[in-house]
Amino acid sequence: MNRYFYIDTEGKQKGTFTPEELMQEQMKRDTLVWTQGMEHWKRADEVEELRFLFSGSSNAYRTAYPDQSVPYPQYAAPYAGDTSRPMPKTWLVESILVTILPFVFCSSFLSLLGIIGIVYAAQVESFYNRGDYTAAAESSRSAGKWTKIALWIAIGWVLLIVIAIILFIVFVGSLAGLEELITT
Q1: Are residues 112 and 134 in the same domain?
Q2: Which of 88, 123, 153, 168 is a Cys-bridge partner for 139, taking CB atoms 3.0 to 4.6 Å apart?
């Protein structure tokens, strides 16, 4: 006995359900279903194990599948339309680095904007595993944007520190030159 995911009338994935539990979900013949071992989503009436749902008899299920006591783990169902697409870049490592390193070395509180990138980066894999490739791609794009913003802020802070050091050295050098002029 398999456990099934299905796509409801609003296009949302629901599951997992035993075939008997699917009887209460008001499934239609053209409802898309998926279970472990299937390559693609199929219409419910195309799955042998679920045909009893549309025959009007629940006894057909009980006689065909008598052992209902075996527990089944829940599996993530791939979305058939997006299984060939690779997962978008997560940007997680990059966003963590551009958030933490500038904060530690430059004490730049603005680099903490990289946390927004971390949040979006953490969502990419979750959306992809749920089969929502569009949301995964959008989260990847947002994570990349905020990671780059944090990187440019870090570069700006480093440049400001280098300029401040150079100006300090020039100022100290000019004071030493001014002191020579005064003493002569």
Answers
A1: yes
A2: 123
Tokens at residue 47, please? 């799955």
User: Is the N-terminal amide bond of 90 cis, ω within 30° of 0?
Assistant: no
> Tens digit of pLDDT for each residue in 65-119?
444 444 444 444 444 444 568 889 999 999 988 888 877 877 767 777 888 999 9
Number of domains in the chain: 2
The answer to whether residues 71 and 97 belong to one domain is no
* 33 touches 15 (CB < 8 A): no
Q: What is the mean pLDDT of residues 4-8?
A: 85
**Could you give the C-alpha distances from 56 to 23, 36, 62, in angstroms and in order?**
10, 26, 13
Pairing relationship of beta strands 32-34 and 42-43 according to DSSP bridges: antiparallel
